[in-house]
């Protein structure tokens, strides 16, 4: 089974692109969604122990409170990652085992910080989702609660887009509309079909 890593900086259209791979019949594991689930479950008390006061009234991690504690603090971010990343890897491993047992010829790992965390070593190919910097900025600043300072702090933690593209096996450009991006995704799946020698369908 081909393991395809999907990544891209904030605001590049990665989630939309992941949905396109799903539409092509590939199972997709969303690392960020896995973190959301962990923050509502077994990770919550352990995150609270590291950063007291970050839970909401339901006992789940409030991501805005947590972000305020770790953004701009590399040491705090490393402590959080050391806790959460192994849990996400466990979820990922279970997903891959299930996909392979189901006979899927390929599976997509949607990992926001794939290169930054060495995730490329866990996949066979990497797709980077990209858009012009002006489009990225417009998309991100339109998000509720986003500020220029927060956007720039997030960017500072991420590998520059040009470097991600240089390291990628495939690049999906999302700045020219959904139809254009969908054609690129379909072309990637066709190429992987040729590499894998099997139809990439569910």
TrEMBL record:
InterPro entries: Depp_CoAkinase, P-loop_NTPase. The lineage of its organism: Bacteria, Pseudomonadati, Pseudomonadota, Alphaproteobacteria, Hyphomicrobiales. Catalyzes the phosphorylation of the 3'-hydroxyl group of dephosphocoenzyme A to form coenzyme A. It catalyses: 3'-dephospho-CoA + ATP = ADP + CoA + H(+). The keyword Cell inner membrane does not apply. Belongs to the CoaE family. Pathway: Cofactor biosynthesis; coenzyme A biosynthesis; CoA from (R)-pantothenate: step 5/5. It is an enzyme of class 2 (transferase). GO terms for biological process: coenzyme A biosynthetic process. Keywords: ATP-binding, Coenzyme A biosynthesis, Cytoplasm, Kinase, Nucleotide-binding, Transferase. GO terms for cellular component: cytoplasm. It comes from the Bacteria. Signal peptide: none annotated. The gene is coaE. One of its GO terms (molecular function) is ATP binding. It is found in: Cytoplasm. PROSITE patterns: DPCK (PS51219). ATP binds at residues 11-16. This is Dephospho-CoA kinase.
């Amino acid at each position: 089974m081909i393991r395809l890593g999907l990544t891209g900086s904030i605001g590049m259209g990665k989630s939309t692109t992941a949905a396109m791979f799903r539409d092509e019949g590939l199972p997709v594991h969303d690392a960020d969604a896995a973190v959301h689930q962990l923050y509502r479950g077994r990770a919550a008390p352990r995150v609270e122990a590291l950063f007291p006061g970050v839970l909401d009234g339901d006992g789940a991690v409030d991501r805005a409170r947590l972000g305020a504690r770790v953004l701009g603090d590399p040491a705090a971010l490393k402590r959080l990652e050391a806790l959460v990343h192994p849990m996400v890897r466990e979820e990922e491993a279970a997903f891959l085992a299930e996909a392979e047992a189901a006979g899927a010829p390929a599976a997509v790992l949607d990992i926001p910080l794939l290169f930054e965390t060495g995730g490329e070593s866990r996949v066979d190919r990497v797709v980077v989702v990209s858009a012009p910097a002006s489009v990225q900025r417009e998309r991100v600043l339109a998000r509720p609660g986003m500020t220029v300072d927060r956007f720039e702090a997030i960017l500072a933690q991420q590998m520059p887009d040009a470097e991600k593209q240089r390291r990628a096996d495939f690049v999906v450009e999302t700045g020219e509309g959904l139809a254009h991006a969908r054609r690129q995704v379909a072309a990637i799946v066709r190429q992987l079909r040729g590499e894998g020698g099997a139809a990439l369908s569910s």
